[in-house]
């Protein structure tokens, strides 16, 4: 059973940066595709970024050039570096192990004007 724990959220001014982390349990982490999603109040959860087992990233168009997903297989951790944050990036951010369909508990990101 894979467990995921996110951290790194917080309150930041527009234009600022945050780095989210997602620590995973389980020995198969290096083989798994990992996703970041977000959910703003009143909205459906939306996919933000993914990274393959060979570290190939993909991004939601609205975050391209601002967000960067990466992984450290030695630490069983996936990261989401978020730069040039905008108020519309405010949401709870979740990581997901696509192979097992496991979700973390989420971490709140709030971007103020």
Descriptive report:
This protein has 113 residues and is mostly beta strands. The protein is built from no helices and 11 strands. The protein is globular, with a radius of gyration of 13 Å. The protein starts with a strand and ends with a strand.
Give the topology, please:
Elements: E1 4-7, E2 10-13, E3 18-24, E4 34-39, E5 46-51, E6 57-59, E7 67-72, E8 77-82, E9 91-97, E10 102-103, E11 107-112
Parallel strand pairs: 2-11
Antiparallel strand pairs: 1-3, 3-8, 4-5, 4-9, 5-6, 7-8, 9-10, 9-11
Give a quick set of tags describing it.
mainly beta; seven-stranded mixed sheet; 11 strands; globular
In short:
0% of the residues lie in helices and 50% in strands. The chain is an all-beta fold. The chain is globular, with a radius of gyration of 13 Å.
Total helical segments: 0
Mean of residue pLDDT?
96
Strand content: over 45%
Q: What is the gyration radius calculated from CA atoms?
A: 13 Å
Question: What structural class should be given to the helix and strand makeup?
Answer: mainly beta
Largest pleated sheet: 7 strands, mixed
Helical coverage, percent range: under 10%
Principal-axes geometry comes out as globular
Ends apart, CA distance between termini: 40 Å
Based on the structure, what is the oligomeric state of the protein chains?
single chain
Element pattern in H and E: EEEEEEEEEEE
* Total strands: 11
Low-pLDDT runs of 5+ residues are: none
């Amino acid at each position: 059973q894979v467990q995921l724990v996110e951290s790194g959220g917080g309150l930041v001014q527009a234009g600022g940066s945050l780095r989210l982390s997602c620590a995973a349990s389980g020995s198969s982490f290096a083989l798994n595709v990992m996703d970041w999603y977000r959910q703003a109040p009143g909205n459906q959860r939306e996919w933000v970024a993914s990274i393959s087992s060979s570290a190939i990233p993909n991004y939601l168009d609205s975050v391209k050039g601002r967000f960067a997903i990466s992984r450290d297989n030695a630490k069983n951790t996936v990261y989401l570096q978020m730069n040039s944050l905008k108020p519309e990036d405010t949401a709870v951010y979740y990581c997901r192990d696509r192979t097992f369909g496991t979700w973390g508990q989420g971490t709140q990101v709030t971007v103020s004007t």
